[in-house]
Design goal:
Number of helices: 10
Number of domains: 1
Order of helices and strands: HHHHHHHHHH
Strand content: under 5%
Radius of gyration: 20 Å
Structural class: mainly alpha
Helix content: over 70%
Largest sheet: none
Shape: globular
């Protein structure tokens, strides 16, 4: 095995994946703190330090094995940021926003990546001619969008299940929470089966690329709007 190729793969895939996971968990903790819960802060989890968020299997073993082994199934997770609902003024509404913060943070990162790529392609300097840089940015965008869409699946213990809880009756939420372990294992089994069958989470790919196209369009419109300012800046250089 070529060690240089392995290191290049890890740099392209694992580094942005790790950052996206950490930013996702940080966003949960940050919104929780804003809504009155300091649990993540007090436990040292309100940070972008990857060591604080690493899950041995989900953050290290599975993703690295997938990258090194060239598996079409690349996924993972971090340790969930702890939230104490007793510290929230309106637990049902507040948990909705705390849960939504994670996927939203990944969409934000993806949009920043799309805008940087737009900037590279249309500025006077040929920043976009480096294929490795473009590939890295594209992977950064897709990794964040896959994380966002995957976490929005309305099943406990994913963020989507907690977002859905805002709109469900108490008994339905209680059943979902009590069975979150079983639901999580079923979801994990579906992912593994999908990977073995070569699906590579195709059911998630469609909304991911749809969302990417939306971000590209919004980024292009934003770039057009601020292009006079950009032209002025480059004119002074």
């Amino acid at each position: 095995m070529d060690i240089n190729l392995v290191m290049a793969k890890l740099a392209l895939f694992y580094v942005p994946f790790l950052f996206a996971l950490c930013f996702h968990e940080f966003a949960h903790g940050w919104v929780a703190k804003k809504l009155g819960d300091r649990t993540a802060l007090d436990m040292g989890r309100l940070t972008l330090n990857p060591i604080s968020h690493m899950d041995p299997l989900g953050t290290v073993v599975f993703p690295i094995l997938a990258i090194v082994g060239g598996s079409p199934l690349f996924f993972g997770w971090a340790k969930p940021v702890p939230v104490s609902v007793n510290n929230l003024k309106n637990p049902k509404n507040d948990m909705f926003w705390i849960a939504l913060a994670g996927p939203a943070s990944n969409v934000l990162l993806a949009f920043i990546g799309v805008f940087v790529m737009t900037f590279m392609n249309f500025t006077p300097f040929d920043f976009g001619s480096n294929p490795l840089l473009k590939q890295g940015l594209d992977l950064f965008i897709l990794i964040n969008l896959f994380l966002a869409v995957f976490n929005l699946i309305p099943v406990h213990p994913l963020d989507g299940g907690k977002i859905l809880a805002r709109f469900l009756p108490y008994k339905a939420n209680l059943w979902l929470e009590e069975n979150s372990g079983v639901l999580g294992m079923l979801l994990f089994a579906v992912i593994i089966f999908d990977g073995v069958a070569g699906g590579a989470l195709q059911i998630i790919s469609t909304p991911v690329y749809f969302l990417k196209n939306i971000l590209v369009s919004v980024s292009a419109l934003l770039f057009v709007a601020i292009s006079p300012i950009i032209d002025s800046i480059f004119g002074l250089l």
